[in-house]
Amino acid sequence: IPVDPFDLVIFGGTGDLARRKILPGLFRRFRAGTMPEESRIIGSARSEHTDEEYRQIVSDAIAEFGGDEKDDKTNLDAFLGRLHYVRVDAAGDEGWEDLSALMRDGVIRAFYFSVGPSLFGALAERLHRHGVADDDSRIVVEKPFGRDLASARELNETLRSHFDEHQIYRIDHYLGKETVQNLMAIRFGNVLFEPLWNNHYIDHIQITVAETVGVEGRGAYYDKSGAMRDMVQNHLMQLLCLIAMEPPAMYEADAVRDEKLKVIRALQPVDYHHLVRGQYDQGTEGEPGYREDAGDPRSFTESFVALRCHINNWRWAGVPFYLRTGKKLKARTSEIAVVFQDLGHSIFEGDEKRHRNILVIRLQPNEGIDLQVTIKEPGPGGMRLIDVPLDMTFADALGPEAEDVPDAYERLIMDVFRGNQTLFMRGDEVEAAWAWTDPIIAGWEARGDVPKLYEPGTAGPDDSAMLLHRDNRRWRDIK
Ligand code: BG6
């Protein structure tokens, strides 16, 4: 379904995120017919470019990051024809009149702040002062949204002094992933799971976001951030919220976000003994370790975090949530595993094995759902039980339709034009997440905590396995 016509201004329009994600994503939506012909994209940055030069930059970006066999020149030319460029000094006053003159009435005006957070305030203020934004305008901002509670609050205040909360779209691209939304469909669209979704039936939950890449090339940003700020405070927290929240009264932005906020506020502070920090070491073949990638031989920044946390409410009392994420691990796997409790009693003689139902929601790769069930081992050998997965890989189950799903950015950008904030973080959510994260980081700093080294290509430091062993549990394999 096409969105209403828009003028989208991308500040940082020649930057990395714009070239890798935003512009190729917009092109794919244009090709799919979701972006109406009358819409325009206005790239903006400090350097001088003509429209023609900008179109070339974008065309190169699409070829490098977004091209596929469906690209045809007619579509691409039509898309490039929708592009303009205006040189604007975000922190100064140059170029704003030109931008203002270019904006049209009667279409949605959206502004993507694809720049560092230090420029958010300057941009928001100038958009107003120069009459570029109107009351229906939307602004889109990216993480990092602050680096602690104080800075996040300050950013929120700055943005809110020029825009209302309903105009501010804070992106967490994990919320745009297809399976993440499926999580809500599975929980609230089926009768099977929700009755069991509590501490009477669930033993524990594991959330894993494992990456094989290191921080090469992004060391300068990452070293000031670390896995806790880069991944746990936002992406893993969002997954935790969707898994743990109470059913919202309806699938509507504030109803959903109110429930997520309650989860974050109910999180118990994490005990030091339930926290593991790791940093990847050099590879056995001499591949650079984290410190080399980060350009700081004494860095204590973590590239891995594992932790156990609890949600203090009726539904989840006593159910541990284990979270882990790291770089340079064994495989690129993101999944949520809901591990149900053991059966209290087995009627099958000689069957002493622990059988457990496990619901696995796979985010990537091979998006899909797996339900581990216990059945009889085939053959004449009597009632011997085995555990097998009921596997639903979306690509197999849905065929070609599953291939055409928009990627996270495409979906989220289109939601901005639809005025749908369900998959965007509200300001209070972000602040609550920092309020939970800050003491963890402060604790590490106060103790001068040194992350445990781990070998690249493994599941992280041994302490991570110990975290579960101590509770008589184990992580699922990263594969
Ligand atoms: C980003 C982090 O937000 O998410 C990166 O800054 C991380 O460090 C990335 O690599 C992971 O996203 P995805 O979609 O590849 O799982």
From TrEMBL:
<dbReference type="InterPro" id="IPR001282">
    <property type="entry name" value="G6P_DH"/>
</dbReference>
<keyword id="KW-0119">Carbohydrate metabolism</keyword>
<dbReference type="GO" id="GO:0050661">
    <property type="term" value="F:NADP binding"/>
</dbReference>
<comment type="similarity">
    <text>Belongs to the glucose-6-phosphate dehydrogenase family.</text>
</comment>
<feature type="binding site">
    <location>
        <position position="143"/>
    </location>
    <ligand>
        <name>NADP(+)</name>
    </ligand>
</feature>
<dbReference type="InterPro" id="IPR022674">
    <property type="entry name" value="G6P_DH_NAD-bd"/>
</dbReference>
<dbReference type="GO" id="GO:0004345">
    <property type="term" value="F:glucose-6-phosphate dehydrogenase activity"/>
</dbReference>
<dbReference type="GO" id="GO:0006006">
    <property type="term" value="P:glucose metabolic process"/>
</dbReference>
<protein>
    <recommendedName>
        <fullName>Glucose-6-phosphate 1-dehydrogenase</fullName>
        <ecNumber>1.1.1.49</ecNumber>
    </recommendedName>
</protein>
<dbReference type="InterPro" id="IPR019796">
    <property type="entry name" value="G6P_DH_AS"/>
</dbReference>
<comment type="pathway">
    <text>Carbohydrate degradation; pentose phosphate pathway; D-ribulose 5-phosphate from D-glucose 6-phosphate (oxidative stage): step 1/3.</text>
</comment>
<keyword id="KW-0521">NADP</keyword>
<keyword id="KW-0560">Oxidoreductase</keyword>
<dbReference type="InterPro" id="IPR036291">
    <property type="entry name" value="NAD(P)-bd_dom_sf"/>
</dbReference>
<dbReference type="GO" id="GO:0005829">
    <property type="term" value="C:cytosol"/>
</dbReference>
<dbReference type="GO" id="GO:0009051">
    <property type="term" value="P:pentose-phosphate shunt, oxidative branch"/>
</dbReference>
<feature type="domain" description="Glucose-6-phosphate dehydrogenase C-terminal">
    <location>
        <begin position="184"/>
        <end position="476"/>
    </location>
</feature>
<dbReference type="Pfam" id="PF02781">
    <property type="entry name" value="G6PD_C"/>
</dbReference>
<feature type="active site" description="Proton acceptor">
    <location>
        <position position="235"/>
    </location>
</feature>
<feature type="binding site">
    <location>
        <position position="46"/>
    </location>
    <ligand>
        <name>NADP(+)</name>
    </ligand>
</feature>
<dbReference type="Pfam" id="PF00479">
    <property type="entry name" value="G6PD_N"/>
</dbReference>
<feature type="domain" description="Glucose-6-phosphate dehydrogenase NAD-binding">
    <location>
        <begin position="9"/>
        <end position="182"/>
    </location>
</feature>
<feature type="binding site">
    <location>
        <position position="177"/>
    </location>
    <ligand>
        <name>substrate</name>
    </ligand>
</feature>
<dbReference type="InterPro" id="IPR022675">
    <property type="entry name" value="G6P_DH_C"/>
</dbReference>
<feature type="binding site">
    <location>
        <position position="327"/>
    </location>
    <ligand>
        <name>substrate</name>
    </ligand>
</feature>
<feature type="binding site">
    <location>
        <position position="211"/>
    </location>
    <ligand>
        <name>substrate</name>
    </ligand>
</feature>
<feature type="binding site">
    <location>
        <position position="173"/>
    </location>
    <ligand>
        <name>substrate</name>
    </ligand>
</feature>
<feature type="binding site">
    <location>
        <position position="230"/>
    </location>
    <ligand>
        <name>substrate</name>
    </ligand>
</feature>
<keyword id="KW-0313">Glucose metabolism</keyword>
<feature type="binding site">
    <location>
        <begin position="12"/>
        <end position="19"/>
    </location>
    <ligand>
        <name>NADP(+)</name>
    </ligand>
</feature>
<comment type="function">
    <text>Catalyzes the oxidation of glucose 6-phosphate to 6-phosphogluconolactone.</text>
</comment>
